[in-house]
Design brief:
3 domains; Deoxyribonuclease I, Chain A; elongated; OB fold (Dihydrolipoamide Acetyltransferase, E2P)
Amino acid sequence: MSKRSTTRIAAVFLGGALALSCVSVAQADTVEITPIEQVQGTGANSPMVGKDATVRGVVTGAYAEGGIRGFYVQTPGTGGQLPTEGSPAIFVYGPDEVSSVQVGDYVQVAGNVSEYYGLTQIKAQEVTQLSEPAESVKPLAVPLPNGDAAREQIESMLVDPQGDFTVSDNYSLNQYGELSLAQGTSSILPGEKLLRQPTDVFAPNSADAKALADENERRAIVVDDGATLNFSTAKNTSVALPYIDAKQRVTVGAKATFTSAMILDYRYDLWRLQPQGQVIGSNDADIALNFEQINNEAPEEVGGNVSVGSFNVLNYFTTTGDQLEGCTYYRDREGNTLTVRQGCDARGAANAENFNRQQSKIVSALSKFTADVVVLEEIENSARFGEDRDASLAHLVDQLNAAAGSKVWNFVPSPATVPADEDVIRTAIIYRAQAVKPIEESVILQDPAFDNARDPLGQAFQKVGGNQNTRFVVVANHFKSKGSGPNDGSGNVDSGNGQGAWNADRVEQAKALVKFTEDLKISRNTKKVLLAGDFNSYAAEDPIRVLKDAGFTDLGAAADSQSYVYDGLSGSLDHILASPELASKVTGQDIWNINAIESVGYEYSRHNYNITDLFTANQYRSSDHDPVLVGLELNK
């Protein structure tokens, strides 16, 4: 094909605006032009796969850097309404050609049609700038359709998504530059904006749970950054993270508002919204949406004259990796050690510098946590390192008191009898001495059901100045986790019903816990019992049902939020359950959303992972679980 080149002022329309630019223009001789709609076709795959095609379109997105290595084009004049045939837009894979085009150019592309893991594309052989003006491309302003077939109809089109959107996941934001949104509200859970973990509200394997899982999949959409970079690899750590910085957070539950158009595409087995250019940093011009900023400075008021909470301290280990032999580490972008990876019994910080970062966040959070009694999970069992069992716990309490400026906090000492073989992490209890006082010594449940979990710790308290009527028992819990299940055909195998692995063991742990509480009621002379902690079970799963069948009320389920986010689904693994005699004394409950809803990038363990340093010594992402709080009105 011969062509002659000239330089002129080319009129290019995009989004209804006329842009004038001086470009190198090539006018092609007669060539057969195939409509992009015909290349796309109406099915999942292009009817022209393996064939050559020449198309014309307006460039709507271009990515010379970041790994996408191509650009999108769309038929001039389209976008005002849903297409009746195939999509009028397509991705052009052109690593060498993309640097010569920009958004708004009117181009002719010749190349071979293919499907790249579900995305129809043209592998460019020649890209020609066109001199004639092109009718404007309008962003398609509709609610994002549900399902593959409906989205296939508008694949690669410029869109202006309509309706309400809520951030549902941010876990991959500091690694792959992507986040997820939930569109609209649930029809199964009226008013619910988030994507709820099905077994947090419905029984596993139930029709309702399956329906909610299907709806979650339909409502979810990924927002990408116009790149395929892995920000955790050394070569990419100098590229600023998209969308977030130390102060501008992208929080699960936050409202997302589109401010400009994006492109609907399909990559890595998911439908995505791509910006029109790669987003670099939190203030890039290509950022097409704003995020509501949610600030949770303190828990909500829960009333009552005594309050009890649960807080996961994320492997708080005063024994750091550099004090032990054999540890391997996770490292920052400069190769400095951050946290212990494996090879030794320490599970927290690599050294004192990183421990101080971790501690600053935990102390900040616990200092603002208004509970009088706090159950802790994932604190070091210092006996495993040749120290007093309570050494790490005592250190944390000292730090809390230093931050308070006086001796506000005490810890519950370990009992005289402790299990012979314990995990390196344990449960613990701290309390405000002006509010409550311990009654008798603590007691640890020693039962074979907890051989693969943390042993529950029970302690009786009484309100300061109160009588026998104000006495109650708190039991700290941390059941077996859901991951790394066996392959032995037992009830501990992950069956795929949402409860994860080790469910049978968690059921046995719940049964043993019920018996433990009955013994405590007698030995501590009160029927008022609270079970608090990380049960590694969502609210409608079997272990929690065992506790409910025994008469306990899940107080956290009455809160208007959840304590954990996994794979974009929100639910509560952390619970506070009350015996019937104490449930009637509850004045309020809250889940303080400061951890699970925030990007993991804010954890101390991600310090200096990227040129955008997200670390701040505040309460946000001090752990991966959110604290739970209840208020009690105890009679004198």
